[in-house]
Amino acid sequence: MRVLGIESTCDETAAAVVETDENGRPHILSNAVLSQIAQHAAYGGVVPEIAARAHVEVIDHLVARALDEAGVTFDELDAVAAAAGPGLIGGVIVGLTTAKALALVTGKPFIAINHLEAHALTPRLTDSVNFPYLLLLVSGGHTQLVAVRGVGDYVRLGTTIDDAIGEAFDKTAKMLGLPYPGGPEVEKQALRGNPERFALPRPLNGRAAPDFSLSGLKTAVRVEGERVSPLSATDIADLCASFQAAVVDVIVDRTRAGLRAFREVAARPNALVVAGGVAANGAIRAALHQLATESGLKLVTPPPALCTDNGAMIAWAGLERLRLGVTDDLSAPARARWPLDSVKAEVPAEAAEAET
Ligand code: ATP
Ligand code: MG
Ligand code: FE
């Protein structure tokens, strides 16, 4: 089976072709991604209107490139999938409409993918992970702990009640005068800073519900920064190190709470999976590795290029659905909001029979 996947929910335009071999093992044939970071950098964040226009300008080239690099024609595809949300609606419409038009003219099935579901299923593309598993999704827009029980069977155990973790990294960086996107910059500064110099809060640590809160931590960085201002290079490095150490503590404590909550909704997890752009952070990876080892779990962290937004994850989620016989109507709407909990996979009766 071979699926084209299109992604345009935020600031990456992406198209990819993924196929499964006769043993059902996945292969990424192409994964073309064009980041708009440079176009948004001057504003210190993603500007929705600029994002939507930028997707329109490049999407057809990216689809052509994905097919070209994969060495396949439209005829050799089994379906066309696109992220239908959640995300910035102008961008979502661009990718979704492109996929629908391609499905219509080629006569191939169309599959509408929830962007979060695609992040959630990525570990099955990069590693052989069986259901169920615990997913920690940490990106610029999302911070969630999810019990992944099957395709279309997700239980959100916890989420952030204010900022996403990536957003907290980006806002902290901006406050300290570091360039956008701030995550990698903060990590770089933290390497040479003193993580114990500033006593910062660990919001919600110790609570049973595996939720997150980041805005108080970000405010505490601002207050400490103002207290020692004007900031020297050492002050900035120490603030970054102290901030990152607090985030690491929060992630470990909240994930531990997530593992406890997991037991109430599923059998023992087969892995702890970390996805999203923040999963690129070395200190966070190391701490989660230790937590997984302590808990007797395998830690799965897809490579950074598949952790951040990409087309292969959309193609793969499409393939997981297609092989269950789940496809969508061309009337599938673009959605700005689309909670992962509400995603289902309605397996048609004939397909369910064929499986057994
Ligand atoms: P979403 O996928 O939720 O719609 P997004 O596109 O912003 O949002 P990603 O592209 O997955 O998310 O990740 C980008 C985020 O990851 C940014 O907030 C960025 O600062 C953060 N990030 C990237 N690298 C690092 C790092 N080394 N340390 C911390 N944060 C990082
Ligand atoms: Mg992004
Ligand atoms: Fe994403």
UniProtKB/TrEMBL annotation:
Catalytic activity: L-threonylcarbamoyladenylate + adenosine(37) in tRNA = N(6)-L-threonylcarbamoyladenosine(37) in tRNA + AMP + H(+)
GO molecular function, one term: tRNA N(6)-L-threonylcarbamoyladenine synthase activity
Cofactor(s) this protein cannot do without: Fe(2+)
InterPro entries in UniProt: ATPase_NBD, Gcp-like_dom, KAE1/TsaD, TsaD
Record EC number: 2.3.1.234
Subcellular location, record wording: Cytoplasm
Functional description taken from the UniProt entry: Required for the formation of a threonylcarbamoyl group on adenosine at position 37 (t(6)A37) in tRNAs that read codons beginning with adenine. Is involved in the transfer of the threonylcarbamoyl moiety of threonylcarbamoyl-AMP (TC-AMP) to the N6 group of A37, together with TsaE and TsaB. TsaD likely plays a direct catalytic role in this reaction.
Family to which the UniProt record says this protein belongs: Belongs to the KAE1 / TsaD family.
HAMAP family according to UniProt: TsaD
Protein name: tRNA N6-adenosine threonylcarbamoyltransferase
Organism: Pseudochelatococcus lubricantis
